Structures are given as structure tokens and as C-alpha cells.
Amino acid sequence: MTEKLQPPRGTQDLIGDEYRRHAHIIQTAQTIAHSYGYEPIATPIFESTAVFKRTIGETSDIVGKEMYTFEDRGGEEVTLRPEGTAGTLRAVISNGLTQHLPLKLIYSGPMFRYERPQLGRRRQFHQLGVECLGIAHPYSDVETIALGTQVLKALGVLEKTTLEINTLGDTESRQNYRQALIDYFTPYQNQLSKDSQDRLLRNPLRILDSKDEGDRALVANAPQFENYLNETSSTFFAQVCQGLDALNISYQINRRLVRGLDYYNHTAFEFVTTELGAQGTVLAGGRYDGLMSQMGGPETPGIGWALGIERLALLLPALDGHDRPIAVIPVGEAAFSCCFNLTMQLRDRQLMTDIAYSGNVGKRLKRANKINARYAIMIGDEELTTSQAIIKDLDTGEQKLVAISEISDYLSNLI
Ligand code: ATP
Ligand code: MG
Fold first, then answer.
1. pLDDT (0 to 100) of residue 1
2. Is the predicted pLDDT of residue 262 greater than 70, yes or no?
3. Ligand 1 test: best mutation among 52, 125, 164, most atoms within 8 Å of CB?
4. Tens of pLDDT along 25-63?
5. Of the bound ligands, which one is closest to the alpha carbon of residue 114?
6. Structural domains in the chain?
7. Is 43 near ligand 1, meaning CB less than 6 Å away?
């Protein structure tokens, strides 16, 4: 016997309720983002490897060990996108959209990271993200975080999360802090994990994000970023916090929050939950003022976030029952074409309708129940002569005679 084909490790088929949860998250976020003026954008799921290497940072987990990179048949180095920001900014630059700032863009789709699969951690997973480009004002950060808050609220998961925020300061503050970290960690160099020894040389801030126990013990006494922020940076952060207070958005300041990507400055934030084990971050983002110029575009401030659709789906309360169809049941061959016409008329009204093709009336009614139909419409020889149909309410069992020509109006009003 041929071996059964399996989905690749860390991937998942989206079927039934799983698919509906997914679609519900996207639909909800898009509707809310629309009210903030966001426009949808779709970019390729693979890009030249340089798009990610140059932006996400060589010392990040993503570039270091998670990218799906390969040479295509023409010898081009390409990578399946591990996140959405780099590709979106690449598209903005490639299409000359930097002439039309400010821009607010929303995307969603599959992302790829070679990780050890766990609950809420997949090799192909889905993100929905927003990018707000061209606004340096701290209230742009407030607005972006408010959008995330509103999306989580509408999905019924806000109470299950905590908003953590931090500032990574401007370039000057980060450089001062960087030096302080190097001075602090260098004497302990040999006690650091191998990854963190590498980070110490290339990006010491990243050590703060280490999940290694030994590193964490050293991190506990490391200098605090707070003490290295210059005036511009602390004022900016204070304004963001004030803006959130004014909107009654609750948050916790987490001075250790640095985010896994290299390109952030000023505001960094995460909505975290304790319900998904180590995979606690459901929506995360930050400000990335230097990113656009680093990619060869004009100096452009920006801020954005991305939410993990699978992780949110795990938190989502049960969805309301989805649309229930109408079952049209011909009783005898003679009524079939009349029933078929009626089915098409109901579909013209956007009513989900199915016609039963085979079996006796009992069987067809059983099938109507199986597909969770709301109403069944039955037409037989007698109904054909009187031009009336039996409409059965499948919840109450109640039956009614309605003129066939009036059924569309009748059901449109009911559903
Ligand atoms: P983590 O610390 O959990 O690895 P991350 O910092 O790598 O997260 P981001 O790059 O900020 O995550 O991605 C944004 C969101 O995408 C995450 O908060 C999470 O909800 C989701 N996400 C990231 N990686 C995965 C994955 N492998 N599988 C499922 N969802 C993911
Ligand atoms: Mg990760």
C-alpha cells in the first residue's frame, strides 16, 4: 500500500471551525482598521533574502536560525517571508509610495519560520499586521496601540491579555545603553550562553531577551535602560503613556521588553497572555524610524504591529453559530425544476440555499437537519397544482403554506 501523504511538520490545514475563526479574526481586524484609515496591501510570500537579512538583523532568532532560505532554479537567493514589515516597506519603496506619505497599510497572510512546532508555534503560521508610515508624533504610537486594543476587544480576548510597553529610546540613548551593557556583561562573558556571547559583540540589547536561565540571572542586575534615556526619548515615552492613560488603555511598563527584531526604536509593546504557555505574545509591535532609510528609501518614521492569528484563534471564545442554510426538497420528480428555480431565486437574495438531489422525503429531511438547515421548503405534486409550498421551521417543527412566488420575500424577511 502507498504511504499516506502527511502535511509538512509544523503546518496545518484550516478546515471548518478552524477556518471560520481565522476568517473572523481577519474580518474583524480589517473592519476596525478601515475606520482608522488603513488600506489593504498584499506582497509576495517570498522576497530576495537581502530584504530580511538587512532589516531584521543578523543576531535575531529569525535571521540566525529560522528562515526558509533557498536558491531558486535561476540561482537567486530567496526567502519565504518570516514576517510582514520588511516586505511591506520594500513594496512601498519599489512602488514609489514614499511620495504619498503618510500611509497606513494593513496586510495578512502566511509567514514561515523554521521553529520547533508547539502549541501556538508553527512553521507556517499567519499574521495580520498594520504599518503606519510617515508620522513621527507620539500620538501615532498611541493610535496604533489603540487600534490593537480595539481589535482584541472586539474579538473578546482583551481581558485575557496584558499590554506591556517599553521604550528603546532614540539612537543616542541606545548607543549609551549599549555601551553600559557591554561594560556590565564583559566581566561575565564566560558565564553567558553561547548565543549571548555572540550577542554581546553584535547586539548586546538582545541579551535582555534571552530565554536562557543563566543569562536571565545576569540580566536581573544589568543596568536599566531608564537611566540611559536622553530627554527627547523620555519625553516621547511619557507622551505615549499619557495618551494611553487618556484613552483608559491599561498597560504595564516592562523595562526588559526589547522585541526580537533589530529595527525598533522608541516605543515597543506586546499584548501577552498567560494562557498559552511560553507562546504568550499574541500581538506585538513597535516604532521603527530608521528602517525605511536602512532599506534604501527616504528617512521615514514608522510604527506597526503584527498579531499571530493561530495564537489568537486559541484564545477566541466560541463563535456564534454561522449562517444556517435553507433546504429545498422536491417531493417527486415533477417538482424538481420548480424547486431548482426557487433555489436559484433564493441565492439571488444571498440566502444560503441547498437543494436535495436524491433520496425519499424522509432521507432528504434528515440531510436538511444534518446540514443544520433553518427551514425546509417542500414542493410535491399537490403544491405544484396550488402553486404553494410547505415551509417547515426545523427548530419548532411548525409548517406553513406560502405561495411559491412569494417565498423569496417571505424568507428574506425572516432570516
Ligand atoms: P515569540 O517570542 O513567541 O517567538 P516573536 O517575537 O518571534 O514571538 P514576532 O516576530 O513579533 O514574534 O511576531 C508577531 C506575532 O506573530 C507573535 O506575537 C505571535 O503571535 C506570532 N508568531 C510568531 N512566531 C510564530 C510562530 N512560529 N507560530 C505562530 N505564531 C507566531
Ligand atoms: Mg520567535
1. 66
2. no
3. 125
4. 999 999 999 999 999 999 999 999 999 998 888 778 888
5. 1
6. 17-170+230-315 (3.30.930.10), 326-414 (3.40.50.800)
7. no
Give residue 142 CA to ligand 2 midpoint distance, Å: 25
Residue owning the nearest CA to atom 26 of ligand 1: 121
| Residue 282 contacts residue 312 (beta carbons within 8 Å) | yes
Ligand nearest to the CA of 82: 1
* For the CA of 120, the nearest atom of ligand 1: 29
So what's the pLDDT on residue 60? Answer: 80
Q: In one letter, which amino acid is 158?
A: L
228 lines ligand 1 (CB under 6 A): no
Q: How many CB atoms within 10 Å of residue 343?
A: 20
Q: Name the residue with higher pLDDT: 211 or 32.
A: 32
- What mean pLDDT is reported for the chain? 94
Q: Nearest C-alpha to atom 28 of ligand 1 is from which residue?
A: 121
Per-residue pLDDT reduced to its tens digit, 168-207: 999 899 889 999 999 999 999 999 999 899 889 888 988 9
Alpha helical stretches, state H, 36-63? 49-56, 61
* Predicted TM-score (pTM) of this structure: 0.89
The ligand 1 atom at the shortest distance from the C-alpha of residue 270 is 18
Contact 297 CB / ligand 1 (< 6 Å): no
Rounded to 5 degrees, φ, ψ at 126 are -125, 140
Q: Give the pLDDT of residue 323.
A: 81
Q: What share of the chain is helix, strand, coil (3-state, %, to 5)?
A: 45, 20, 35
Distance from the CA of 340 to the center of ligand 1, in angstroms? 49
Phi first, then psi, for residue 346 (nearest 5°) are -65, -40
Cβ(26)–Cβ(316) under 8 Å?
Answer: no
**Minimum CA distance residue for ligand 1 atom 11:** 284
Model pLDDT, residue 128: 98
Give yes or no for a contact between 30 and 76, defined as CB atoms under 8 angstroms apart.
no
Pairing type for strands 353-355 and 326-330 reads parallel
Output b/e per residue, 376-415; b: 16+ Cβ within 10 A: bbbbbeebbeeebbbbbebeeeeeeeeebeebbeebeeee
Ligand 2 mean position, distance from CA 62 (Å): 7
